[in-house]
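cache lookup: miss for this entity combination. No prior model stored, computing from scratch. Input as submitted by user K.M.:
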Amino acid sequence: MSRLPVRKTYKLFVGGEFPRSESGRTYEAEGQNVARASRKDVRDAVRAARSAFPKWAGMTAYNRGQVLYRVAEMMEARRGEFADLCSGSKEVDRSIDRLVWYAGWADKLAQVLGSSNSVAGPYFNFTVPEPTGVVGILAPAEPALAGLVSRVSPAIVGGNAAVVVASEPHPLAAIELAEALATADVPGGVVNILTGRREELAPVLAGHMDVNALDVSGADGDVPELERLAAENVKRVVHGAPDDQSPWEIAGFLELKTVWHPIGV
Amino acid sequence: MTELERKQDRAPIPSRWEYATAPESREIVSLRERYGHFVGGEWLEPAESYQTIDPASEEPLAEVGQATDEEVQLAVRTAQDAFENGWSALPGSERAKYLYRIARILQERSREFAVLESLNGGKPIRESRDVDLPLSAAHFFYYAGWADKLEYAFPNRKPRPLGVAGQIIPWNFPLLMLAWKIAPALAAGNTVVLKPAETTPLSALLFCDVLRQAELPPGVVNIVTGDGRAGAALVKSDVAKIAFTGSTEVGKAIQRELAGTGKKLTLELGGKAANVIFDDAALDQAVEGIVNGIYFNQGHVCCAGSRLLVQESIYEPVISKLKRRLGTLRVGDPLDKNTDVGAINSRQQLDKIQELVRSGEEEGAEIYQPPCRLPEKGYWFVPTVFTNVAQSYRIAQEEIFGPVLSVLTFRTPDEAVEKANNTPYGLSAGVWTEKGSRILSMAQRLRAGVIWANTYNRFDPSSPFGGYRESGFGREGGLHGLEPYLDFE
């Protein structure tokens, strides 16, 4: 007689913990009951991201790079599980390699994206990239894993905290990723993952006044309406590549700060 | 005034210096009675028009066009033709030479432009002569040099121009904002339709004569004048990109309007900058920095240091020095070379300043204004300091865009950061301290696009400028200022 397997309960990932939706709702996806987040869950996730942001942004770039690399290590250990939840091992490998690639960018961004500026006067003047703050990400519906990794990695490597609405039809890879993140020294709240109805969650995230940028690279439905909502607090609206890698994908989530100081004796 | 101040009788001494007037001659500017829109290298007779005035005397200067939807669309089509038929195919080195020519002509005609800028905008001639004009020319000169080096600016990205850039600029630095917009757009290979602010169209219209002298191909730069309706028509038109500098309210409306269109957008919006003075700062220099931060250009500066954050231990000396210094500011005729603070740009802006200042008094702040004789005609506002300001007051939260300073205090660096960042804006901030490590720590923690340490209100074409949060997105100036005008593979 074969053993009855122990099933997993698929919950949200907020502030480094795995709560059920406060609404008590679930929906069925990929044969599982998955938490169906509410508007309140979105607000809680934004609050968690906001409180995680200063610590994450304040870490050294070297340290952030190591944490991202650690996520890749944790994913590598779960390759089999991930492969079952996306299009297969090729997508898993691509996702892990992409994380490693982005991990290496953490301490090189300022050199590639920043500048020292030759102003016409006795001033020392330089420009450095800084994270924009809390980023809302609407993960691509597919590829379930690579799409998610392709959007979350460039957002967090520069020091932002993220609130992600996972793929609605394929949410399981996102929860699996949350488990890898939770064991990879990513401070709680730096990445928050919500599963549920996109139509219900996306507008709340887009209109939230404490979210600084909205990534619509993987958005579906009424994207113009999301962009209109984003204007309420002048969010940076990011149209990136759903399954690709580039330092310019990181730049979309960064601000540039220019500092002046007089030169004299 | 605090109890201590009363006891020590530190009331400022108003200046008793008598100055002979030193007016710059306005003869150098010859204005036409009427201006049309500048489209395709020619003047287009406008269907509607309005008077533009001198805010220092309320006298009309000229009649200018109020662009209709059709006129704006014609300008955009003309720019599109110019883009397709020549400009985008021109080698970068040739585009560069046009921009160099424009820079040189602006230098040659700088006095004429400076006088016109002061006439139509109300800013002191000293500022238009020493700041606006040199920086405008420098901006064209800087971006001229990029026009044939784009592949080095963006290696491996195959930069290419967007098409027609629609540009909407404010009235506080009319020619300089024109330069900030047009120079990078042309360097990147785009063509332009620019709308100057309703109250300050004249330097942009005179700039059309610079374009004639530079022999810039017709249609590469088109200028349509008018109020917000003309701006709205430009936003709705068939341009590839909108660059807007102005209020946060209008910026949000533009962002909403462009939602889902795929058009590129950069916004340079309002601010409520904190100027943070620590107890180890060089106080006299800091006071000069405070004055330059908020009274420069009548406070009509989006990055003005409108919130002074003083460390409690030096509150008394800073405020007393500041009040003394205020007594020496000369308010009056913008064309007088002695003038420090000129005319408020418009009746509408004066109303807004007055309304916010009333709210400050009503909410409980203490107002100080130096004794000051104002001209009878024109729009004027006395340099003002509010003390006893709570963070929740409107004068500590809303952009006044006038010569009005709100003073708050702090005890620790943490408190200074907390208060400085406590607005929806994030354009600029100032820090004054002699401690190097503190400067760098504050520069890191202040959430703003430009940090001036032991200086304030410095600008340079090579230095990126732009905001965090509700102060907008995108940068102007420097290598970073080119990017919004390019597409990449």
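stored under new cache key. Chain B has two domains: 37-269+468-487, 271-453.
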